[in-house]
Specification:
35% strand, three-stranded mixed β-sheet, 7 strands, 29% helix, 2 domains, alpha+beta
Length: 163
């Protein structure tokens, strides 16, 4: 008989807890439906997309994004001859997100026969440019870039003599 009484108490305790859970479930469902309704009223519709320019218009006028820069590097010797097949490393800080640190991103390139490299868009600010070519002294320098397009000429010097 005692065993059945304990079971009865357990069942009534379960019913009391589930009543609180029912209210929480109703409140959560109400907030969910309100959020879905708000998102649907603020989403762009098919008729709203007609006001925007077509993709063909966007291709005709392609400015650089704000805060971005395009670099053109020219690597020459001290006698103004182009250095072909030199390794060029461009390093810059990528901004971190919420609760994240900035990280150093790197792009690697090789110079062409003219000694030039076209670097795609990178963020404006401090940029490290390093050049390594066989038979020439390694070059590295931090640049502070604030323009949308920048041309940089790098002159490599012969390596020092080892005795």
């Amino acid at each position: 008989m005692r065993y059945k009484q304990r079971v009865m108490k357990t069942e009534t305790g379960y019913r009391r807890v589930s009543a609180g859970h029912r209210w929480a479930a109703v409140l959560a469902a109400g907030l969910l439906w309100a959020t879905i309704g708000f998102a649907q009223t603020n989403s762009p519709t098919a008729s709203g997309s007609q006001d925007q320019p077509s993709s063909k218009d966007k291709q005709d006028h392609n400015p650089a994004q704000p805060g971005m820069t395009k670099l053109r590097l020219l690597v020459t010797t001290d006698s103004d001859k182009p250095v072909a097949n030199a390794s060029v490393y461009v390093r810059y800080y990528e901004p971190g997100g919420f609760l994240r640190h900035e990280k150093l991103a790197e792009l690697n390139f090789k110079t062409n026969q003219d000694g030039s490299v076209k670097v795609p868009e990178v963020p404006q600010g401090k940029i490290l440019i390093q050049v390594i070519a066989t038979g020439w002294h390694t070059y590295g320098k931090w640049y502070d870039i604030n323009k949308e397009e920048e041309s940089i000429t790098i002159k490599l010097v012969p390596p020092p003599h080892w005795y």
